[in-house]
Amino acid sequence: MNATLEMDVKASIVTCLSCGGANRVKRDRVLEGLNPVCGRCREPLSVDAAPVTVTDETFAAEVLGHPRPVLVDLWAAWCAPCRMIAPALEEIAGEMMGRVRIAKLNVDENPQAHAGLRVSGIPTLVMFQGGKEVDRVVGALPPPQLRAWIERFA
C-alpha cells in the first residue's frame, strides 16, 4: 500500500490542451526524457518536471509562446538570495508540472532579455500568461509564500 501511495505522490494529473483529457504523468519518467502524450487524442502534453533554462535566443519561444503560465526566475550565480530560492523553485516545478512552467534566466549571460524585462534587482520573478506579463515579485520569498504566489496562476 505504501508503494502505491508513494507512486501516486510522484505523479501529476495533466490536462491536455487539445482535448481537455486528464492524464496521469509521472515526474520521474519526464526527468528521464519521456515526452508524454495524451491518452485520448495522442497530442503531446506540455510538461516540465524541472525548471528549464532560457536564453536571449529562446526566450520568445520558451516563455512567450508557451501554452501554460510561465514563471521566469531572473537570477545570477553570485546572488545569495537567488541561490536560496532555487531549491524551492525546483521542488515547485515538480509539484506543478503540467500546470506551470518554471524558467530560469541568468541575467549575466542574457543581457537582451534582462534589459527587455526592465529588471533592476535580483532575484526577480516574473509571471507570464498568454505571452504577457501578469505579475512580478522582486526579492526572495519564503517557500510557503512563493508557492502560494505561483498557485494563483496555475
User: CATH fold name of the largest domain, please?
Assistant: Glutaredoxin
Q: How many structural domains can be distinguished in the coordinates?
A: 2
Give the DSSP E fraction (strand runs of 2 or more residues). Answer: 15-25%
Number of helices: 6
How much helicity do the residues have? 25-40%
Please report the distance between the alpha carbons of the first and last residues.
30 Å
Instruction: Note the quaternary state here.
Output: single chain
The level 1 CATH classification of the largest domain is Alpha Beta
* Counted beta strands: 7
Assign the structural class, choosing from mainly alpha, mainly beta, alpha/beta, alpha+beta, or little secondary structure. Answer: alpha/beta
User: Uncertain segments of ≥5 residues (pLDDT<50)?
Assistant: 1-8
Shape designation = globular
Strand arrangement in the largest pleated sheet: 3-5-4-6-7
Please identify which CATH superfamily of the largest domain we are dealing with.
Glutaredoxin
* Overall average pLDDT: 90
Give the SSE string.
HEEHEHEHEHEEH
CATH architect. name of the largest domain: 3-Layer(aba) Sandwich
What's the story with the biggest beta sheet? 5 strands, mixed
What gyration radius follows from the Cα positions, in whole Å? 16 Å
Topology:
Layout: H1 2-9, E1 11-15, E2 22-26, H2 27-31, E3 52-53, H3 59-64, E4 70-75, H4 80-95, E5 101-106, H5 111-116, E6 124-129, E7 132-138, H6 143-151
Parallel strand pairs: 3-5, 4-5
Antiparallel strand pairs: 1-2, 4-6, 6-7
